[in-house]
Amino acid sequence: METLAMHISNGIINGPVAAVFAALALAGLTVCVLRGRRDLDDRLAPMAGLVAAFIFAVQMLNFPIFTAGVSGHLLGGALAAMLVGPWVGALCVAVVLVVQALIFGDGGVAMLGLNITNMALLGTAAAYLLIALLLRVLPRTRAGLAVTAFVAALVSVVVASQGFVLQYWLGGTTDLGGNLAGLAGTMAGAHVLIGVGEGLITATTVLTVAKVRPDLVYALRSRRAPVTPTVPVAGGVR
């Protein structure tokens, strides 16, 4: 039985396109490091380590989509964005991807820039943009926080999957069957289902943290909205 590697395997995308996205990923991570240093404090630093460990664990749930080395799995970008912010969150996901590629062989090392772009940069960015929007329009209650986490996780997973479609269009070397529209539909359909699972995990995890230590949820403590009766307090989210 063929073993499917997690993420994009070597040879799926040609060298020039992989090199371009490696440079793009490096530039994006450099920005994340520079901006993330401003956010790191005594609360965020240990939380970042916990988030990275959790993401590493959930990404081990792997679902094959094609028989040519492409698979889907939980990403963790939305969870990271909510708990440690978009900059540190993207770094957490990137660190996990590097460890998986170099030590466990999950995803091709030559494809690392592609995977980091899709999952660490695109996925986390899409998640945090939605988080910032939804937390402005939804009530700051347990239900509002859960909906925010669920929707952000679901959308971020689908956005990351479409990043692969773009990369395959630019430099795909393996026949995955069908046309580009079919590929996009297959990836989106599979990742919607994955996104539902990730949304439930993200919402449950964020609510649990917010109930005990709302100050550790970056998306909540970074908001500058006036305090209202429904704002998370020391005892948890109402």
Uncertain segments are 1-6, 224-235
Count of beta strands: 2
For the sheet with most strands, the description reads: 2 strands, antiparallel
- Topology pattern, helix = H, strand = E: HHEEHHHHHH
Q: Would you tell me the overall average pLDDT? A: 84
Strand and helix map with partners:
Blueprint: H1 15-39, H2 44-58, E1 62-64, E2 71-73, H3 77-84, H4 86-104, H5 112-137, H6 142-171, H7 180-212, H8 218-221
Antiparallel strand pairs: 1-2
Helix pairs in contact: 1-4, 1-5, 2-3, 2-4, 3-4, 3-5, 3-6, 3-7, 4-5, 5-6, 6-7
What features would you describe in this structure?
By secondary structure, this protein is an all-alpha fold. A hairpin with a 6-residue loop joins strand 1 (about 60-65) and strand 2 (about 70-75). About 65% of the residues lie in helices and about 5% in strands. The protein is globular. Residues about 1-5 and about 225-235 have low confidence and may be disordered.
List keywords for this structure.
238 residues; mainly alpha; disordered N terminus
Task: Write a brief caption for the model.
With 238 residues, the protein is mainly alpha-helical. It is built from eight helices and two strands; from the N terminus they run ααββαααααα. Strands 1-2 form a two-stranded antiparallel ribbon.
